[in-house]
Amino acid sequence: MRRLVYILFFCLVGSSAFGQQLPLFSQYLYNKFLINPAVAGSDGYTSVSLTTREQWVGYDGAPRTVAFSVQGRMLKRSFILKQTRSKRQTYRPKSDGKVGLGGYVFSDKNGLVRRTGTQVSYAYHMWLRNSTQLSFGLALTGYHYKIDEKEINFEDPDEPLLYTSLRRGMFVPDATFGIHLLNSRYSLGFSADQLSEASAKIGKYSLKNFTMTRHYYFFGSYDFSLGTQNILQPSFLFKMSEQIKPQVDIGATYIYNQDFRIGLAYRTSGALIANVGVNFENIFIGYAFDYTLQEIQQITYGTHEITFALKFGDKSRRYRWLDRY
Question: Which of 3, 160, 233, 322 lies in disulfide reach of 253, CB 3.0 to 4.6 Å?
Answer without folding.
Answer: 233
